[in-house]
Design a protein that fits this description.
Helix content is about 60%, strand content about 5%. By secondary structure, it is mainly α.
């Protein structure tokens, strides 16, 4: 791929703009009208709490069905995303850049004193644009933070499905591609089955909405987490039966740890007396859960996430580091985030956090880190 071809492939077109606008329009409409469980968010500093309509699974299923029908009737190609991958990447990047500028300038004019919309301005334009200045900005009644993370997860699946269609069309479908697609689909669908858990994550309750989150949701998640699929589209990998079984075991363990830890944390926040593994929870200082997975490591959910990321790359074999970009990046990110979490918790909980660290000495991987 020469430079001229790459630049041409990255050049946005009206078709890519139309695809992106159509996708966001559908999500905005479906998110507002499709039936779904309304989940209260955490109580914010001013005593208020937002409510989220968790209808992502229904919205995603309906979208895939509509796209399938449209493809069957010849209105759209199943490979439209894989054919325009780089073009859509640059279009989405430009959109992320522009929307965060709007968020900055609109937020800086806010006179709100509430936790959700109160502007937090440091005076450093780059810092405030990157990290954001409002916690939960809205547009036409849509919570943008929740909207963007949903768009990123759905976009990831749509890219994968288009890559799968391209593989079938080109006659290159392999066992490795099937395994990768299966793991990713299960992970993404599971995310939407448990979408309400997202409402209690750090990103939703504490991070302000700036370029870091918008770019992360709309560009980084769908376009970099799908690198393995793109790689398998152009590289044939033969896996032994042992490798397939081992890959499935890594995925299963990762899923059990990731989903189990997040479920325990979510249930604990809703009901601090809920049983953990059939026993009353051990709680430090009345605030910190030290039972179940959270009694094994202080950030054990990160371990599950890392194992899942590894399972997405293992179908690509070990001939190249390219398909392992995601787990390598995630390892660096989660260690950095874990350090940020530790600093925040030490400041927030003080002596209670010191007690928790003494009781649970391991950060992510027991006996190692």
């Amino acid at each position: 791929m020469d430079l001229d071809f790459l630049l041409l492939a990255l050049t946005p077109s009206w078709n890519s703009v139309a695809l992106l606008v159509g996708f966001f329009t559908y999500l905005a409409i479906a998110g507002s009208i499709v039936p779904g469980k309304v989940v209260p968010g955490v109580i914010l500093a001013d005593g208020t709490r937002l409510h989220y309509r968790c209808n992502g699974l229904f919205s995603l299923s309906l979208l895939v069905a509509l796209l399938g029908i449209s493809a069957k009737m010849g209105f759209i190609s199943t490979t439209v995303i894989s054919d325009r991958g780089l073009e859509l990447l640059s279009t989405t990047f430009i959109f992320s850049f522009l929307v965060t500028l709007v968020l900055y300038f609109a937020g800086s004019k806010s006179q709100s004193k509430g936790s959700s919309l109160k502007p937090h301005i440091s005076g450093n334009l780059i810092h405030d644009w990157w990290f954001g200045i409002q916690l939960n900005p809205h547009f036409m009644g849509i919570d943008l933070k929740f909207f963007f993370v949903r768009a990123g997860m759905m976009g990831w699946l749509l890219i994968n499905l288009s890559v799968l269609a391209k593989s079938i069309q080109d006659g290159t479908l392999s066992q490795s591609m099937i395994l990768y697609q299966l793991f990713n689909a299960l992970y993404i669908l599971d995310y939407f089955v448990h979408e309400e858990y997202m409402t209690s994550t750090w990103d939703i309750i504490a991070e302000r909405l700036g370029f870091m989150l918008v770019f992360g949701d709309l560009v980084w998640i769908p376009f970099t987490f799908s690198i393995q699929g793109w790689w398998l589209l152009w590289n044939k990998v033969e896996l032994s039966t042992v490798a397939v079984v081992a890959n499935c075991i890594v995925f299963l363990i990762g899923y059990l740890v990731f989903r189990g830890a997040n479920k325990q944390k979510h249930d604990f926040k809703k009901n601090p007396k809920a049983l953990i593994w059939g026993k009353p929870p051990k709680v430090i200082g009345g605030k910190l859960l030290a039972s179940g997975y959270w009694g094994i490591a202080r950030h054990c959910n990160y371990l599950g996430d890392l194992l899942l990321a590894l399972s997405f790359s293992l179908p690509c074999g070990i001939s190249s580091l390219v398909p392992y970009f995601y787990p390598i990046y995630l390892l660096i990110l989660l260690i950095w985030r874990e350090r940020r979490d530790e600093a925040r918790c030490a400041e927030k909980y003080k002596e209670i956090w010191a007690q928790y660290r003494k009781l649970v000495p391991w950060r992510i991987l027991p006996c190692v880190y």
